[in-house]
């Protein structure tokens, strides 16, 4: 008989915030490397947002381990066969990239800006890893539903991209930067990221078939269909498409995407806990 992992809400938050951090850093790196000077606000927000989120992920991982010394042991002694050790290293390495990029985002030197851009291209790979490896971790377990979910990593990565962009858009709105070309670009990018997430989710469910019942039927069905699919993807996509001229609707769309991203991880993690 398989033993349930007994994960608490700290792991759900760890998965969720790690996805946002990876997505926000990716958004920043793209804006920094291929955008114009007007896009520097997007880059700075993305870098500065990813840094505290990664720090919180480290705290949540330590809290789940129970003893801070265990986290330090995982950092000092890397074990490629231990998912928790991989997670600790991912948080530590990506955290270093977010710190350097955040500091360099305030530079006025073009040479330092060039260095920041190069660093970000490497850092976003670790951001991708942090956003997606949690799904891969679940799909490689022996637990029912999780073990059948071979696209879980891709789904978490796609969700990390959409929630990261939504978080950047939300911060820009709250700081009064939701005007001009940069705001429009982040809205368009988030639109495509939601479409990608919807496509990956459809493939995820199609490949799972009846094995998806822990989240599509029963206790979690309303939360999955209404909270994630309806309120977290379809409604914000429609607001993004048809309400782009009303900036307040952009705020609502960003919040709903973030809520949907949290619900995705909640139903996936908690669906087999009972």
Spell out the helices and strands N to C.
Answer: HHHHHHHHHH
> Which residue ranges are poorly predicted, with pLDDT under 50 across at least 5 consecutive positions?
none
Q: What would CATH call the architecture?
A: Up-down Bundle
Total number of β-strand segments?
0
Strand content: under 5%
Describe this structure in words.
The longest helix is centred in the middle third of the chain and has 30 residues, at 110-139. The protein has one domain: Formate dehydrogenase/DMSO reductase domain (Formate dehydrogenase/DMSO reductase fold). It has ten helices and no strands. The relative contact order is 0.14. The chain has helices at residues 9-34, 40-65, 68-76, 83-104, 110-139, 152-174, 180-208, 213-216, 221-242, 247-270. The model has no long low-confidence stretch (mean pLDDT 85). The protein has 274 residues and is mainly alpha-helical.
Name the descriptors:
mainly alpha, Formate dehydrogenase/DMSO reductase fold, 274 residues, single chain
